[in-house]
Amino acid sequence: MLYVQAEPVFVDLESLDVPHMSLEKARRSITLRTKAIIIMHYGGYLMDMPAWRELADAHGLILIEDAAHAPGLKGVGSYSHAAAFSFYSNKNMTSGEGGMLLVHDPATEKRLRLLRSHGMTTTTLERDQGHAFEYDVVELGFNYRMDELRAAVGLVQLEALSRRNRRRKELSARYRAVFSQEDRIFIPFSDEWQHCGHIMPVLLPEGAYRPDVMASLRERGVQSSVHYRPIHTLTQYRRRSSVLVCLPLTEDFGNRVLTIPLHPDMVDEDVDYVAANLISILNAHLV
Predict the structure, then answer these.
(1) Of the candidates 101, 97, 100, 98, which has an alpha carbon nearest to the alpha carbon of residue 81?
(2) pTM metric for this prediction
(3) Nearest to 50 by CA among 23, 21, 10
(4) Considering only CA atoms, which of 159, 177, 195, 196 is closest in space to residue 187?
(5) CA 276 → CA 74, 88, 179, distances in Å?
(6) Is 122 exposed, middle or buried, given 0-12, 13-18 or 19+ CB atoms closer than 10 A?
(7) CB within 10 Å: which end of the chain, N or C, has fewer?
(8) C-alpha distances in angstroms, 178 versus 39, 110, 253?
(9) pLDDT tens for residues 7-22?
(10) How far is CA 78 from CA 19, 94, 112, 113, 194, in A?
(11) DSSP labels for 124-186?
(12) Residues 227 and 199 sit within 8 Å (Cβ to Cβ)
């Protein structure tokens, strides 16, 4: 947004149980200056797209999906004006880097194809094949093209996406079953929520010092991460903002969330090992 001089307006979560942007709080944040809504399927858990499209249409706004966590999830890209996917190395489908856009409007697609390649009217391949003999640069574009090697990797990954998503969901369900008797570890979303199992976020209990928990997990051979530190607390955005942004639920979630391993090559015993060690570490750190 900042690249096109738009000013982001951050909206708090619906709840700790549903860490998606709140539709009602978003509705209250819309002004005459609002141009678009950007939503994200956090963790690979599908947002209520018909409701968000209804809100966007009611105010004449563009609806954009950050679908980086949701490849292969039914309904993604169907209701929005555009959906952006990431093929970074930790995504359900990866080509190492790069991504994909889904759009419905042919004119928008044409302009995006232009912008991704320096704003040039023809490509090197088109000229090499004799479809064009010259080019012009008609917009200030970017160098966002995916190369053929990454595209080839992506095609192989695409064939395995459904199978790997199913396995991610199975592993997620096992985590939920193992943690079901542990009151101090909270897992967002319900068992029935439509998702593709991108990451496995858990909320640590209040009083648990996350860096120590992560260090102890690492000592036991368990990698962990944080998805995510709230955007409005990052230095770049704090420097830009002239007002104090306060999003209590987002900040609480961001301070307590821990991402534990979830990958389709894991076996059930891996889940049991991670869960047992996390429980053991919290028992040692908390009284």
Answers:
(1) 101
(2) 0.94
(3) 23
(4) 177
(5) 33, 30, 9
(6) middle
(7) C
(8) 31, 49, 22
(9) 999 999 999 999 999 9
(10) 22, 22, 18, 20, 15
(11) HHHHHTTS-S---B-S---B-PPPHHHHHHHHHHHHHHHHHHHHHHHHHHHHHHHHTT-TT-B
(12) yes
Instruction: List active site positions.
Output: 91
What's the chain's Rg over C-alpha atoms? 21
In tens, the pLDDT along 208-261 reads 999 999 999 999 999 999 999 999 999 998 888 777 899 999 999 999 999 999
CA gap 149, 157 in Å, rounded: 13
Per-residue confidence band for 123, with pLDDT thresholds at 50, 70 and 90: confident
In the block, tokens 């992560």 appear at 214
DSSP 125-139: HHHHTTS-S---B-S
pLDDT of residue 114: 93
The tokens 């029935």 sit on which residue? 192
